[in-house]
Request: fold
Amino acid sequence: MPSTPSRRLLPRPAEPWYVAELLRTETAGGLLLLGAAVVAMAWANSPWSGAYEALRELRVGPAALHLDLSLRAWAADGLLAVFFFVAGLELKREFVVGDLRSPARAALPVLAAVGGMVVPALLYVAVNLAAGGPLRGWAVPTATDIAFALGVLAVIGSALPGSLRAFLLTLAVVDDLLAIVVIAVFYTAELAWLPLLAALAPLTAFRLLMTRGVTRWYLLLPLAAAAWVLVHESGVHATIAGVALGLLVPVHLSGREGPQVAHDVEHAVRPFSAGVAVPVFALLAAGVSVSGGEGLSAALRDPVTLGVVAGLVAGKAVGIVGTTWLVSRFTRAELDPDLRWADLVGLGLLGGIGFTVSLLIGELAFGAGTPEDEHARLGVLVGSLASALLAAALLSARNRAYRRISAQEERDEDQDGVPDAWQRPSPDGAAPASAADPRPLPSDGVEGRDRPRRGQEAP
Reply:
């Protein structure tokens, strides 16, 4: 008789209330992102396409500071810095109080994210080696756009269970971290050390204010802007400044309990990131002209386009699901009896929606407006669309089961405001992840907790 598995492959999230809150915000942002992408494509292929190009190339900003940039560049370097600031906040929170604080819980999403980047990169390289295409776009199909993926889930009405939602979100957070490393290491052509070192001054001042609980925007924004300008001048992509600022925000303040600074700052900034910054970037970056059958046919046959599509559609799914299967094989962990491996394939296909960061990496790899960049953008759009349609078909077929599982997870028979599932020990022996869990959580060097007590309203 086979032995009982030592633990579940996809455990319940450590902070179910935070996952639910994050899903609501990102889903709304994903729908806006979808709308912006549709508008960009329609505008770029309309009789007014000239106005679209003129808008993207309109230059604004002080030339004395080397900031006379096009609106397209401002969106990629400036608005996406806000997006990466939120990503930095998510990373900090996950490593301090979230699922990534435990090596056992972090192993699967970290390994799955790595597999979901390595396999698409290898597929892109294989396609372009065979066809003699440029290899410097290898990182384009490696990113996952969680907002776009959640927008797809909202459109199809999928009710993913908590364990699948937590896995998808944690996977996306690790994916963002790896994308940040790729941008910083592989797409920094020239490095000027003086402005990079000078950026430490506003970053240090920002950290000191935050640790003292000073969150007044008129004090923090000038420091953030100074750090952004100096990082931009150093040759490192300016979005890295956003990540650094996000990582410097403390999760807790000394001597205080309950949700603290990182969550409050994220709660204030995320709506602007999801509702303005990312959709505006999509509007200015996603417009690809596909008019003319011969031109479109040639672009679709280009190795850059084929490599990006293969990486997003096949590479992401194979990398994520294959790595997850290997983890289950070597750790003897098993899926929840209510879940199927087809559910993981659906999540892997959702991971192939690599919109925002993929478009950014394409511009960094090939140069904005070059033929290769246009083909990379076309590949991102085609690959993301194909991944979304395949994921929608697969997950929709399982939606009835998802709704049943979600109903079980939300049941609260003792009516204490905490779902019963979160108060029972997990099959792997972990303590309940309830809002009443009295165990102190680790922090980034200061005391405090980041989980509401029973009866305390979650922020």
Remarks:
- Residues 16-44 form the longest helix (29 residues).
- Residues 1-6, 427-459 have pLDDT under 50 and may be disordered.
